[in-house]
Amino acid sequence: MSADHRVEVLETRGRGDATHLAQAQGGRFDRVIAIGGDGTLNEVLAGVLKIGTSADTRPGLGFLPGGTANVAARALGFVSEPEELARALPGMPARPVDVGVVDIDGVERPFLLWCGAGLDAVVIRELNASRTGHMGVFGLVRNAPRVLGSVVRYGERTIGVEVDGVETSPAASVILANVGVMAFGATVHPRASPFDGVVDVVLVERAGATSALACAARMLWSSLTASPGVSHCTARKVTLRAADAVPVQVDGEPAGNLPVDVRMAPAAVRLLVPSSAICSRAGPDAS
């Protein structure tokens, strides 16, 4: 990077630090780069959203992946190599993207990738409880018995779903996808886009270990929305309720239990990604 660009490195020491640092210091810069996993990116996103009132008044948000899954890098086209990112940053475009906002007990949390309630949140909660660092595929395999046990213990629980003010059929699990992919190459819905102003609502009718394994397999070789017993729609606002304790995940991090209210904030933040990545993920109407 040339000498006429000022760079400041800020280190986090614990959960939540990235949000506070981004909010407190990000307004002094035109670009903020999150270095870490998808959870770190989410924390920085939360801080950047508290700066200004629109994407144009907030610093551009970049990402250098260094976590376990790094879904955001694949889903949104972030540059993964430090030297390549440093060379490209001065001229890299910033494209506004949609952000989901989840209201849990009166506290708002944003998501760039997805929010889920039910079985996917059960799996994520169990993985986070046993994670001590970078997990990877081998860590996932090692923890598979514990994860499967948590799914079996979770059993059958029903989620009430309201989409844009209209009550829909209840579901066992719900994924609100702003992008099409999840961790380890899984696909939720191939046409989910963070540029269309809506969130893709994927409803899984049945819970249980057998259903979970079947859906996981279908996600790896096709997509979750291609599975039997799975329905799909799009929405700008979604409300999820449950009589029992149903866990929630936001961008791959445990976020408490239902109920939640979710709304989309169109074009809320500008992402720093190469032009080729923007065009390939923006859909047929991309400029």
Beta-strand content bin: 25-35%
How are strands sequenced across the largest beta sheet?
Answer: 4-3-14-11-6-7
N/C terminus separation: 29 Å
- CATH-level-2 architecture of the largest domain: Sandwich
Radius of gyration in whole Å, from Cα?
Answer: 18 Å
Major sheet details: 6 strands, antiparallel
State the helix count: 9
The tally of domains stands at 2
Approximate shape? globular
The CATH class of the largest domain is Mainly Beta
> Per CATH, what is the topology of the largest domain?
Tumour Suppressor Smad4
Oligomerization status of the protein chains: single chain
The overall average pLDDT, rounded, is 89
Structural class: alpha+beta
**What's the total count of β strands?**
14
Low-confidence stretches: 282-287
Q: Can you describe this structure?
A:
There is one protein chain. This protein has 9 helices and 14 strands. The protein is α+β, with helices and mostly antiparallel strands and 287 residues long. The chain folds into 2 domains: 17-97 and 267-281, Probable inorganic polyphosphate/atp-NAD kinase, domain 1 (Rossmann fold), CATH 3.40.50.10330; 104-266, Sandwich (Tumour Suppressor Smad4), CATH 2.60.200.40.
Provide keyphrases for this structure:
2 domains; 29% helix; Rossmann fold; alpha+beta; 14 strands; 6-stranded antiparallel sheet; Tumour Suppressor Smad4; 287 residues
